[in-house]
C-alpha cells in the first residue's frame, strides 16, 4: 500500500471496556433516513457488512460531541448488492456527509452453493464465488465514483482476515481483494484504514468462534478505536 496512509488506534482497549462502548455484530444500525442531520456536528457515514455493524455503536460513543455517526441501512453485503442501493444512502435530500468510511470484501469473496447446509449456504469446495477479483474491481470503481460525487472525505477500510476453517471463504483471498482495493483507492487518492493489519495477529483470540470472521466485543472495540481515529483525522477542524 505504498503511498497510502494507514491508521493505528490511539484509544486504548481498557478505556473502551470501562466506558461500556462495546457492541456485537447483531447491532441494528440506524438508517440515515431515520436520523435527521444535526446542524452543529459533522456527519459521518459508515458503510459495510456485519464487521462494521459490530463497531458502529462504540464508534458513535468515541466520537460523541465531535460527529454524528450513522451506518448504512442494515448490512451492505457485497459490492453488487450495494450498487443499486448506494444512491439512496447518499441522496442529497438526506443531508451532506462530511466523512464516509467504507468497506466491501468479505461477502464478495465468499463462495456459496444452493445445497450447502451452512449459514448463508457458504461452501468454498462446491460453491461459486460471489464476485471474481475483476468483477470486484469493476464494482469498486463504480461505487467509489458515486461516493466521490458527495464531496465527502473518503476513507477505505481494508477487509479483515479470513480465518482457518471458514466454511465459504479461502484463507488469503482477502489479501488478493485488498490488493485490488488498494489499487483502486490509490488511483482515486483515497486513504486506507488498514483493519486487516490491525486484526491479523488476533484472529485466534478475538473472533467469536474458530473459523468465524466475526469478532468478539473486545475485537470490535479494537476496530472501533482505529476507525474512530481515522475519522477524527478527517473531521473539519474547529
What does this structure look like?
- The protein is an alpha/beta fold.
- The protein contains eight helices and seven strands; from the N terminus they run αβαβααβββαβαβαα.
Summarize the structure.
This protein has 238 residues and is of the alpha/beta class. It has helices at 13-19, 50-62, 79-82, 86-89, 133-148, 173-188, 195-199, 217-232, and strands at 43-47, 68-71, 99-102, 111-112, 128-129, 153-157, 192-193.
Key traits:
two-stranded antiparallel sheet; disordered N terminus; 238 residues; alpha/beta; 8 helices; 5-stranded parallel β-sheet; Rossmann fold
Order of helices and strands: HEHEHHEEEHEHEHH
Could you give me the name of the CATH homologous superfamily?
SGNH hydrolase
Distance between the termini: 31 Å
Strand content: 5-15%
What is the helical fraction, as a range of percent?
25-40%
How do the strands and helices of this protein lay out in sequence?
Elements lengths: L12 H7 L23 E5 L2 H13 L5 E4 L7 H4 L3 H4 L9 E4 L8 E2 L15 E2 L3 H16 L4 E5 L15 H16 L3 E2 L1 H5 L17 H16 L6
Helix pairs in contact: 2-8, 5-6
